[in-house]
Amino acid sequence: MSTDRLNIDGHTRIFGLIGNPVGHTMSPVIHNTLAAYYGHNLIYGAFPVADDPVKAVEGAYALGIGGLNVTVPHKSAVIPALVETDDFAFKIGAVNTLVRMDEKGGYKGYNTDMPGLYRAMCQEDITIAGETVVILGAGGAARAVAMMTASKGAVRVSVLNRTVSKAEAIVKEITALYPDCQMCAGSIYDLHDLPEEKFLCIQATSTGMSPHADQAVIEDGAFYERIHTGFDLVYNPYDTKFMQLVRQAGGKAYNGLNMLLYQGVVAYELWNDMQVGEEAVSLVRRRLKEEMGL
Which residues pair with 99 in a beta bridge? Predict the structure, then answer.
């Protein structure tokens, strides 16, 4: 269990991230720290892919790349290049982790974002089963969050967005898959139809992300008084405006750093057929915070 840098040789397995842009990524910190900790002879880098991600995936397989992470804007576009897609990733319609399957001549796609979010919530003792959930946003992340919370037993999920039709499309789709969960759509400008009881709120937009740290998708203080726990998928800044508003109203607030951490951990586990221990997770968390200057 060394934390020293590994030597690179002819047996070193290569992994990496494809997307555009990739210069800001924290993923190398996660995977190279885990590789050093466990003594695995692998190295992880970042590969900017502006267009044609299908060719990029095919080329990576031909070069013997052990596995890839995929970030925006290619999480859906890479799917035609895969020989198989995990059932949950297929339902979400997006993959972020590719696992090499030499017996099938290609990669299998997984989505570790939502398992990562779920593990991050469990780590903070946040319960989803039996919970009332409000999701802010109706993009790809919000859609995945809606599916994850419904699949984990939330009794009611409300999706709020500026463009209500986008929220309604998510609600229609998730209701068909998980009919036991009460789904509803609404506008962030009209909060009258929200559940009366306090709820878990997941902020799934990019609003408040650095350098726009002074923004929140909803500013109404009355809204935050109804949140018992707020979880922001944004991790930079570490303390978002959404989180500040939740705490000011008396709720608990968490950011997306642990989601980032655990989605990487799940990917590492898939690539190496293993379980990452909490000591290693704690080390990676410290390294991420150091990288962020925290």
Answer: 67, 108
DSSP 3-state assignment of 197?
Answer: coil
Residue (of 139, 99, 92, 135) closest to 113 by Cα position: 92
Contacts of 24 (CB under 8 A, 6+ apart): none
**pLDDT grade, residue 2 (50/70/90)?**
very low
Mean pLDDT, to the nearest integer, of 234-242? 95
Judge contact between 95 and 85, C-beta under 8 A: yes
In one letter, which amino acid is 166?
A: K
Sign of CA dihedral 231, 236, 239, 240: negative
Q: Which residues are catalytic?
A: 75
* Alpha-carbon span 37 to 34, nearest angstrom: 5
Cα 174 from Cα 181, distance rounded (Å): 9
3 state SS of 72: coil
Q: CB 39: neighbour CB atoms within 10 A? A: 11
The letter for the amino acid at 197 is E
Mean of per-residue pLDDT scores for the chain: 95
Confidence of residue 192 (pLDDT cuts 50, 70, 90): confident
Running DSSP on this structure, what letter comes out for residue 206? S
First to last CA, the chain: 25
Q: Could you give the dihedral angle defined by the CA atoms of residues 171, 184, 176 and 75, in that order, rounded to the nearest 10 degrees?
A: 30
Kindly report, residue by residue over 124-154, the tens digit of the pLDDT.
999 999 999 999 999 989 999 999 999 999 9
CA atoms within 13 A on the CB side of 191: 17
DSSP classification of residue 201: E
Q: Residue 196: what pLDDT?
A: 83
Nearest to 107 by CA among 124, 91, 95, 120: 95
Residue 6: what pLDDT? Answer: 58
